[in-house]
Fold this sequence. Notes:
The protein is of the alpha+beta class. The protein is 24% helix and 22% strand. The chain contains two helices and four strands, in the order αββββα.
Amino acid sequence: xxxxxxxxxxxxxxxxxxxxxxxxxxxxxxxxxxxxxxxxxxxxxxxxxxxxxxxxxxxxxxxxxxxxxxxxxxxxxxxxxxxxxxxxxxx
Length: 91
């Protein structure tokens, strides 16, 4: 168990400016991977040991679970106004 904590302690996780993206950074602040909260996928950008990769992916899934897509509200129906009928007196 100590090995797992030591491996995770050499990485830190940071939310990106893009909503739903978590960056995985190493001790030198190099971006190692990006995790999408929308899809649950990890895109690795640098080489990492397979054991560390599995552990980081599992940790990300536990701490940043996949978010259900928020439904876009339907636009409110637009009221169309009918022109008022002219009264006989106005003619």
